[in-house]
Amino acid sequence: MNLKKDSPFWSWREIEGWLTEEEGKKLQELCLNKNIIEVGSYKGRSTACIADVAKLVYSVDTHKALGDGQHQVDNLTTWREFRHNTGGYFNIIPFCGQLSQWVDTLPKVDIAFIDGDHTLSGVKGDIKLLQNKAKLLIFHDYCHGFPAVMIVVDIFIDIQGVCGSLAWGTIKESKLSSVT
């Protein structure tokens, strides 16, 4: 375990966010001993959940979201809380900004966890940028509350499983060229 060094009882469950207990358990099962790129971290709930079991987590977020996690503003809104909540983990490498700014810096990894921009163009753009970085893609908010996530995932991803609002799979071979 890579628990926060200043508290032996630290838990990802204590961090504000929308990842459920069931989803967290499944995410940890999928990410166990893997290298992960995370897109969209808000205040670090999913980041800490993954970091508890992963080798390394490359976490990318603009940290400019309002309280709903989606609407963006010009100034940093969550960076300080994210760093407070995840700063004690030794296996998290944070990147503040858009995925497009950092994608060339990021290494190939085992898994990409995508929970960023929930618009059609946002989800498709994340898939496009990560298609050569990770074979397995995990999406959060694959649910009726976020129809754009469902639409893009259903079109481009060969879904291997669903748990709560997590869906994971690989890019459909027939869709690889159309992602670009």
Describe the structure.
It is a single chain. This protein has a 7-stranded mixed beta sheet, sandwiched between helices. The termini are far apart. The protein is α/β, with parallel strands linked by helices and 180 residues long. The chain has helices at residues 21-31, 45-51, 79-86, 99-102, 120-130, 147-156, 176-179; strands at 35-39, 56-61, 92-96, 111-114, 136-139, 157-163, 166-171. The chain contains 7 helices and 7 strands. The longest helix has 11 residues, at 21-31. The chain has a single domain (20-179), classed as Vaccinia Virus protein VP39 (Rossmann fold). α2 links the parallel β1 (35-39) and β2 (56-61). The model is unreliable at 3-9 (pLDDT under 50).
